[in-house]
């Protein structure tokens, strides 16, 4: 059983357009989904959930969102942290105002609210491009963080200025609050990731995705073949912000439990997610996951090696870890500027011809 | 000038090779285009008829590309009227013009480099795809059906232009001549009523030029598409086109069949220069 498309005949445009055209890929995907849903929840413990899997899943959603905007539609954004804060504060206000409504609906609504905010801050993109747009979205980042600090209504006038997620359940299982079990946290994030990744794939393969990519690659030509730049750009901002808002809502309610806006959703978050998509691969769904995994797992891995195996002091390891991550990012961008997704594609291309490459 | 009058009677005319040319598809009346103090186009009028291949020629800087940009709605002229399919066209955004059924290619290739050949050509059909947002998001019903129908139409164009083997290649990796062909495919995918080609043969070798000429004639012949083109290669222009407009310094100095234009003294002067004594 080799990794080949030979013998796997496509008899229609439907099967030719499927997500995984090679049979082995398809099986691999099904197996991965099955393991993620049916095996991992029974094995997961608090360490794996809190240090690895839950942050990976949440950042994968944020990376998917930013990749739609930056990778597919070509609009640079440094406002991801701010938009995540919108999602977090929206879900907090909804949770406390309507305690009887399901948290799932609140998280989706928080995404919707972020989409509207994202569209507002996307308006400058109709006139400015590139670095200038990045600066405009940077303004969104600072303004939103300032707003959530300044207006006590957003944090329900709490003395600490923090927001704290009350306990909410889905199907009788607590998914937010201190009593949440590791499998519950993991499963709710996994469900959102699964559905959102599927939506992202569908949106980017069809008409809307082609409009975004046309705007990204050459906006004047896109307009001349009939793409309305206004709707294309604003829809990218809206959908991207929807994803990012949901990531922010999950990060606050499921993962952190309590958050202070400047600390949890500062400019660092914007850069972190931007690094994820650059390292993972712009304009690739797989790249969003790969980048999120790289940026979440690498520090954990290094910490385990340096402190756990080599027995270095924790503070030294923490600094070295930052340096190694930084150096790796630079090396990586020089070696493969198109990211992990490109490396993966190249590996698959090689594998298809293996063992007779000529 | 009397000769020209007879060749463009109201109901059209019959070309030298026996094709029937229809009525006026696009009528440009007294177009003047200025960039600040520079008049790029000075009071030019001509028409493009249903089913014909119309060439716009002239020396460098004559205003040909500006003229094409006026037709495609990219520039809005300060004076004059553009009539398309019997209706006066107001100031429009380029994407609105595209929806009227006018497609074009560019002098410097304007493909989407990050997308495959197939996706590039599919973008030509964006205006025909009407599936709603929800249908696209869940890839069910209208979105999937449309995708398959339009894919079939695109595959016919891929066959027609003989680019089957590169359909999944990213456009950025293709050589120049093939890029030109893909760009033509994208314009054709829109099934335009009027196809504008801005120097379709610029930078090509003889063989590629022959291929491209054949495709242009076939498009006109098989799909009945009206074509307006700009080209510098006089041999090609004279062979392909039914009627030719000649521009120089923003003015129209000739208009008629290739033979008429070839024998027009003003055109000869513009190309060869006039002795100043």
Describe the structure.
The complex is a heterodimer of chains A (358) and B (277). Chain A is an all-alpha fold and 358 residues long. In chain A, the strands form two sheets. Chain A has a two-stranded antiparallel sheet. In chain A, strands 2-3 form a two-stranded antiparallel ribbon. Chain A is globular, with a radius of gyration of 21 Å. Chain B has 277 residues and is α/β, with parallel strands linked by helices. Helices cover 38% and strands 24% of the residues of chain B. In chain B, the strands form three sheets. In chain B, strands 8-9-10-5-11-12 form a six-stranded mixed β-sheet, with helices on both faces. In chain B, α4 packs parallel to α7. The longest helix of chain B has 19 residues. Chain B is globular. The chains are: A mainly alpha (358), B alpha/beta (277). The interface between A and B is large, with 30 and 41 residues.
Write the layout of secondary structure elements.
The complex is a heterodimer of chains A (358) and B (277).
Chain A lengths: L12 H4 L6 H21 L2 H27 L7 H18 L5 H20 L7 H21 L12 E2 L4 E2 L2 E2 L7 H24 L1 H11 L1 H6 L4 H28 L1 E2 L1 H4 L2 H14 L4 H25 L4 H22 L3 H15 L5
Antiparallel strand pairs in A: 1-4, 2-3
Helix pairs in contact in A: 2-7, 3-7, 3-10, 3-12, 3-13, 4-5, 4-6, 4-10, 5-10, 7-8, 8-10, 12-13, 12-15, 13-14, 13-15
Chain B lengths: L1 H6 L5 E2 L5 E2 L2 E12 L2 E12 L3 E5 L6 H8 L7 E6 L2 E2 L5 H6 L2 E3 L12 H7 L9 H6 L3 H19 L15 H14 L4 E5 L7 H18 L2 E5 L3 H7 L2 E6 L2 E6 L1 H5 L2 H8 L5
Helix pairs in contact in B: 4-7
